[in-house]
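Postdoc handover notes: sequence design on the structure in folder B. Input tokens:
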């Protein structure tokens, strides 16, 4: 999969093939603008983000705890046909994820059928015996999924990761669109762009649809946050405001008679659905970590009794595991009876001796990831690694091979990006957000495009210096 990256505006390789049809209007517009135009617009965009306070926290850094995620003012374009293909694949994959989670917390037929090794489930730190065989409202575990997609060719898309615990980034998708519409109305006039601003309505409809079946009134929804010191707190407050629901912390909730209540100025109000942005470990100090001050004592009792829906469900973290990811083609086939529309990136499971030998022999050519890693941390990009880093990962792999998977160095597609030197191609990925309700699976067209701003870099994570772009699905 290595080689010249696919340029989404100009075509393959060096960009000498001419402009691809979906980018023709954008390319012409870019050529019409004077250099200072982009600098001015970028400054205006940064000012907008600073005023609304859209930041993320960087843990473990002394110089600052809050940063703006760099925003690139040149949009990424996808055709309606490209999006339709992605949408079909995303719906199939998330349906399979939900069926897989229902199964491993229930009859475990996929384990008995040999689809996935039993030890990979039972020994996984995110597999929660506490919810084994308890009824989950409407059998939906992953209500909000963020599926990371990479493109390597004109019609080649791969799933890089599944994010099913508390996927973040949707606030940036929405704010990116708003700032683009403010700064570039003339560019929107040249394109028919599918809207994304209905995401909050779609999310609220999804959450309300999965309320416990015993709820006879309009379901009450709340968003549970760890608090203002969490890296994604801006997104929590943003979404609660957009949804029109209460943003609550643990101290705002209490449990009585296996029901969850919210403290309000009018007295206690029963809560039916909690969109939680707290990891399992901190959710209930009576069940998980007893030292947690972020969770609600007794909430798991209400959950087991079927009196509250937690979105996403407890135990979904196992499907984020990169070792489990390697079995997704088999999982999709087992639970849907179809081949996966969206393929996995070819992956070596270092827990298997033959794969480990291959990885150790080709370490300088591969990307190595921790199975429970995220945010671009704990990974090795072989072609860009120093000898010291390669030696360090060799030791790690030999000491604990089960903790790692390896993949080829992908030639991620590139999009035009405004950088210090002007407009230049930079590597991108895409995180669409998939909403699974009791009535349907909803996906707004597009998602969060993340961009590696450093020339040649393949790491798009904001925590590693990446930025974001607005993603336009052309509706014509």
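Designed sequence:
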């Amino acid at each position: 999969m290595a080689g010249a990256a696919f340029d989404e505006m100009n075509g393959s390789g060096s960009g000498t093939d001419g402009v691809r049809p979906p980018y023709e209007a954008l390319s012409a517009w870019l050529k019409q603008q004077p250099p200072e135009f982009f600098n001015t617009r970028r400054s205006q965009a940064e000012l907008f983000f600073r005023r609304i306070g859209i930041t993320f926290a960087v843990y473990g850094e002394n110089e600052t705890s809050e940063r703006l995620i760099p925003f690139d003012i040149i949009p990424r374009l996808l055709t309606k046909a490209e999006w339709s293909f992605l949408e079909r694949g995303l719906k199939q994959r998330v349906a399979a994820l939900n069926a897989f989670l229902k199964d491993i917390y229930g009859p475990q037929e996929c384990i008995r059928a040999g689809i996935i090794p039993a030890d990979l489930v039972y020994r996984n730190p995110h597999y929660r015996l506490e919810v084994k065989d308890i009824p989950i409202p409407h059998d939906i575990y992953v209500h909000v999924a963020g599926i990371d997609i990479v493109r390597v060719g004109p019609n080649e898309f791969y799933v890089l990761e599944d994010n099913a615990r508390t996927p973040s980034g949707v606030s940036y998708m929405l704010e990116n669109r708003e700032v683009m519409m403010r700064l570039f109305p003339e560019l929107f006039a040249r394109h028919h762009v599918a809207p994304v601003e209905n995401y909050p309505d779609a999310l609220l409809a999804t959450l309300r649809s999965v309320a416990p079946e015993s709820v006879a009134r309009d379901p009450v929804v709340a968003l549970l946050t760890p608090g203002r010191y969490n890296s994604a707190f801006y997104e929590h407050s943003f979404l609660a405001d957009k949804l029109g629901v209460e943003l609550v912390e643990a101290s705002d909730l209490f449990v009585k008679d296996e029901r969850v209540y919210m403290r309000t100025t009018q007295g206690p109000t029963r809560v039916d659905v909690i969109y939680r942005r707290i990891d399992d470990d901190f959710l209930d100090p009576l069940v998980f970590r007893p030292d947690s001050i972020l969770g609600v004592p007794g909430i798991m009792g209400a959950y087991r009794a079927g009196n509250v829906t937690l979105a996403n469900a407890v135990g979904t973290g196992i499907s984020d595991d990169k070792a489990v990811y390697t079995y997704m083609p088999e999982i999709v086939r087992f639970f849907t009876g179809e081949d996966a529309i969206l393929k996995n990136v070819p992956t070596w499971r270092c827990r298997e001796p033959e794969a480990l030998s291959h990885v150790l022999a080709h370490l300088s050519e591969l990307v190595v990831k921790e199975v429970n890693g995220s945010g671009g941390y704990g990974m090795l990009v072989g072609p860009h690694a120093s000898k010291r880093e390669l030696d360090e990962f060799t030791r790690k792999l030999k000491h604990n091979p089960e903790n790692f998977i390896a993949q080829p160095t992908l030639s991620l597609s590139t999009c035009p990006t405004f950088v210090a030197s002007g407009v230049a191609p930079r590597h991108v990925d895409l995180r669409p957000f998939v909403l699974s309700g009791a009535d349907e699976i909803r996906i707004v067209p597009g998602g969060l495009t993340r961009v590696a701003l450093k020339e040649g870099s393949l790491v798009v994570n904001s925590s590693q210096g990446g930025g974001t772009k607005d993603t336009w699905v052309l509706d014509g």
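Context for whoever picks this up: Residues 22-345+410-473 form one domain. Don't rerun without checking with the PI first.
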